[in-house]
Amino acid sequence: MRRINRKSAPKVVGGQVQLKNNWTETPNIYNTESRFLEVFRKRPGKGFRHLLKQRDIHDFIDIIPDWEDLSKGLDAIVLAPGDWDTFGYHTTGVVHVCAWDADLWMTMTPDGFEREREICERLGVPTEVVEDGILCKFTESTARGHQLLATLLHEIGHHHDRITTRSKYRTARGEGYAERFATEYTDRMWERFVEVFGLPE
């Protein structure tokens, strides 16, 4: 028998051994449903910066069509730490927009740029072919537009995918669905986006 080397004996109550510590998981946005959508801002991490403020998120969701339906089951939007190869990601009930590269400009692979070409052209991002890919010359304004229209809408698309599946547990239709969702809503929202946030420059 392999014994546990306990530091001290746990308490026994009514013949039942009691756990020594409190093993209840602390409530947080990932394990507790919220009645209201919360927006959190975490530290961006070294080499990254947050271009979006919490107010930007609230102003943006105010102009999203069908928001009441789209936001069902969505507990939080997180301005998350930056990641060198991730614009954003989705977990059950929470979408994340990662902090932007502190240098603003970024080089994408040709395949990666093809996925971003439409939004970059809409935002007016100058590009240049360089030795290792396509250099996208973002400004603070165009990068914010990308984070809202491409990243946030994409991750909301994943959330919508999940809540409209039978199990409501996983994103069954994948990246293609989220991409189409973001493109469709950007088309529908563009004029209102420019009214509220200005034309990216």
Top keywords for this entry?
four-stranded mixed beta sheet, globular, alpha+beta, three-stranded antiparallel beta sheet, 201 residues, 5 helices
The separation of the N and C termini measures 70 Å
**Domains (count):** 1
Order of strands side by side in the largest beta sheet? 3-5-7-6
Which ranges are low-confidence, i.e. pLDDT below 50, for 5 or more consecutive residues?
1-9
User: What's the β-strand tally?
Assistant: 11
Tell me the radius of gyration: 22 Å
Q: Major sheet: size, sense and barrel closure?
A: 4 strands, mixed
Helix fraction?
25-40%
- Total helical segments: 5
N to C succession of SSEs: EEEEHHEEEEEHEEHH
- Give the overall silhouette: globular
Computed structural class: alpha+beta
Please report which band the strand proportion falls in: under 5%, 5-15%, 15-25%, 25-35%, 35-45% or over 45%. Answer: 15-25%
- Average pLDDT reading: 85
